[in-house]
## 1
Amino acid sequence: MKYLIPILLIFLVACEGVEETGFQTGNDTIPYAAVLKYSDSVFKSHQADTVFLFVNPRMSLLIGHPFEPTEKHSIIVRLINDSTANLLVLHDRSGTWDTLVNERSISVQLRNEELSLDFEDYDGDNMHDLIFTKSKWDQPQGEVADLWLYKHKQLVRIKNFDHIINPVYDEVTHRYYGQEGLGYNSMNVYVSEYKLVNDHVERSIVVRCLLNKAKDSCLVVMNDVPTLTIPVKDAYKYMPAYFQQEVKDNFESEKK
């Protein structure tokens, strides 16, 4: 609790001497000096921690070594209002904080969920990258996220990554995959495959399986073109390899 009050004071109270390049919060802009000073003090208090994370329903603050064990970062994401967030990523270079990311208008739809920052390897270089989940929904469940790849001590935002629903990265194929249910039956599915090209992703495969339960069949739609009607039990054969076993297992569980 000893960090709760200082954090809220810095990010919720209006400050004098506002800088144009500061951190947006509600109708106010917090000067960078205040953000940097607080980042430094929290890091010094948690030098033994790989990551110090503070989360409340409107803000996430992470200070530590999320990308490399030798590199110090401060990452702050805060709701400006119910539909917009501000993301700030700072990197310590020999005692001076440099700005890597300052995104002021990220569209969010979280429906009272906490702001989520995740760190995983999303390009196969054995270094963590930054993923910010910015929209979630139910029935069927889904989410979209923004991805920043960590390259040469910089963060590169990957364009169009938020087109992928429920994104995952496959280390074998080095492709990104998305999957969304099309109703309550797990055989009604939409799967997609994307490849990374420079600083953006391009869609390479989209497969829909549109279930006809009465006929125990499935209309396969490949890249938006109706292709063929097949028995439901064979639907997995037309999916990208990454999903084949999962779709096959779903069919077997539906039949029980």
## 2
Amino acid sequence: MRGIDGRPRKAPRWEGRALGALMYPANVVVGAIAVLILSVPVVTILPATLALSRAYAAWVHEGDDAVFTNTFREFRATWRRSLPLGLGATVILAVLVVDGVFLIRELTAETPSIGLLFAAATVPLAVAAAVYFFAVAAAGAAAPDGSRRDWLALGGRLMLAMPGRSLAVAAVVVVCVLASTLLPTLAPFVLISVPAVTATGLWLTLDTTDHP
């Protein structure tokens, strides 16, 4: 930008701050779109989330804000290691969906059966599974050269090392699920991307140099 005298003129400080603030939600949205594209086969949901976490880590720690293209690049670099994890996550997701449908039917039935108690017990298990899901994805960013076993072990360690941060991730997951229930159009943009960026931001501040 140049002034009337032809000399370069710096942008106002507030303008730079405003652009920086807008970049954050923009990268969350474009990251969600990348995951949505990569998750079409369903079994690639976890590999896509892991790739997104690595792209977010590069953005936060290295200043590389090309989250959309970096997600595809990281997916290409990690899908062979993470696809078996994605298969396992898909099976767990299918079981939780069946339990969720049963729970909804029990809640809407005129005479709920004792099965409601067993179905309700799956809610905390589902939240814990979701937290571990994002912990494994964050572990993929914390240990870029790790194996599947490394990521699974480190994901558990991240959950246990800071229970307060795990609860924060769980709270974000619950809020995103409730928001998506009230406004289904939000689901593709918040269900994975917001918890992923939260988990990556919280857990990658830990010392993970001695990961399993």
## 3
Amino acid sequence: MAAAGLAVGADAEARRWALVVAAVAGMFWIVPADLFVLVLYRPRRDPATVRASVTEVEILGSRRFAGWTLATALTWLVGSCIVAGAVDAAWRLFWIVVAVLLLVVVIDHLLSIGHVRRLVLTRNGVRATSFRTDAEVAWDDMAALRWTQGPDGLMVARIELKPGAASYVEHWRHPFAQRRETIDVELPSLGLDPLLVMMALQLYWLVPSARAEVAGGRPPARLFDADLAVGSVPAELGTDWLASFRPRAQH
């Protein structure tokens, strides 16, 4: 509102600084909006995002997180360019450097957003498309499964591989990615309760007989039913997680 007021009937200098005020306001407000989407907002879980066949279960993710992060980076890039054009030479260099760094971030996300996040479960192994890679590995070549922060800031289920895992295959790789012997499952991007998905991954990894659930031609009930998932998992699995987190109530 202040920027609009300055622009009405003002000279060129006033209009320029009004544009700067508007750019800075946009840069400020996009951050809490992005944090709301990434941290606080939780959409209704959608069973329709799960596809099942006699060979696999595929859980499709959403572009919502990637899209909002890209929108935030674009807003800051445009704002930085506007500010760089308005300030004096000393500060202009600083904002040009900021704009260049943000351009790299924008390119980074543009390359990634076209690849929909997904998780594919089979009797033999798991495949996941995340921020910078699409890879798969056999259950028996997994060495660990843990919560951690992914390269785009989201919490992920990180699958660590055994040394020399022969089944590890990369299908698509982001040009900015560093090669790691890990696979990230972006749980918040999937349309299911993250804790139930994490518990299912751990169960199928450590209990081979349970893998028959992903080859029955229909989605495993444990991906949707919190009572079933908690009640059927062996006592030694997921105990630490359930002490800190609880699955979301069904809608």
## 4
Amino acid sequence: MTTPTSPSGQQTDLRKIFYQCRLGKDDLERMFAMACEGIPVPDVKISTVAGNTRFWKASLQDLISAVHSGAPEIGEHWANLSLEASTPSQERGVKIVIDKERTEVEVSGSDTTWAFGQIARVEKFLMSRGAVFSSPRYEDAVMYVAILFFLGLGTFILIHGLDGESISDCMERAKSSTRDAKIGNFLIIFTYTFGTLFPFYQILKRKALRARLNVHTNIPTGSWWSRLSTAEQIAAVGVPIAALATIGALVTTANDLWGK
């Protein structure tokens, strides 16, 4: 946002970035109206870029109509949206830029109290719409490390046993100690199951909580589970059952094969 010239000789500039914001049509209308509060007779420009063309209007509904007429090919799949509002004297201004990954909010004004209060109000609203301060890409890195760790640990236990022996030796000892065999099988099943199901549920959760920009309809609120489709909820129950059965069968087969 271009820094406005304040007649008072000083200005407060604030900027915050949010991720995973889920914004539907009513959410956008409400947030834009809130952002313009406290700006007397604001000069408002709501815009989007479609291909190589930028469209802008004074209201979201007028912008939607203009895009439908000028770029009907993008349909409901808008990739970006922005709001710019300022006073004619440019003593107060707000800019909000939204894309498929993040929402950036900038507030400037010679009135420090108004600037901090305004960005706090927008932040509170976005937090109620799923906003977080860190990029989900960091969560992906943690998830991949967890997958590799638990799958690697399960493979190590399966091949080497609990004390460095081969699985054949471990099975020989297990003939006289079923307790050791049960512990080993439990650890193998647990590590493989967690290493498989943890990323599965993370993918479902990320899908439900991902950033969304929808200028035509509203987006449901509630828990991430409630936002999954019926098919996804069925899969969330059925996949763990199938995974446990498969992993248990594989471990039993490995024990029978290498333990003879």
